[in-house]
Amino acid sequence: SSGIEGLKKQFLDLIAQTPDAVVRYSLKKMQRRSGPVVVPGFSNRLLILLLRCLPRKWVVFTLGKVGDLAD
Description:
Blueprint: H1 2-15, H2 19-32, H3 42-53, H4 56-70
């Protein structure tokens, strides 16, 4: 079971960031003035790439459905 827990932690470490890490990354990018948009984290960048590749109509429809589930 500890092997599974270790894999879960490694996976979460790969896709999640601590608030401190996000702030450090954001401040570093602000100092460089590299642009108006900062997307920290591998999983967030992957999501942005995926959203750019999918048809916009499909993305809007799907996100609308996900929003309905939250209510």
